[in-house]
Predict the 3D structure of the following.
Amino acid sequence: MSKIAVATSDGFTVNEHFGHANFFRVYELNETGHKFLDVRDAVAACQHSLGHDTTRFDKIIELLSDCDALLVQKIGEGAAAYLISKNVRVFEVSGQIDAVLDKIIADKII
C-alpha cells in the first residue's frame, strides 16, 4: 500500500506545476486500485516575484511526509533537485488522475 500526492487545480487532472500548487489530493494505492483520502492545503512554493523559497519547499515536504511520491505536471530543475535531495520521489506526468494512478499500479512504478 502506498500514498501518492497529486498536484491538481481541478481535482480531476494532474495539471499543476509543483511550485504553483495551492493544494494536493492524496490517494492510497494498492495492487487492486486506488482511493481518494484527503485534500491538503498548501502555500504555493514559488511566488512569482520572490522566486524559489526552500522554506516553502520544506513545508510542503512536511505536509506530504506520509506520501511515497508526488505527481506534478511540471517541476523546475532546482525544485526537483531539492526534493530529491530530501528523498522525495517526484514524477512529471499529466492526464486524468484516475488514469495516471491506474497506470502507476499496472506498471508497478510505486
About this structure: The longest helix spans residues 97-107. Helices lie at 54-63, 77-85, 97-107. Residues 18 and 95 are 15 Å apart (CA to CA). The chain has three helices and nine strands.
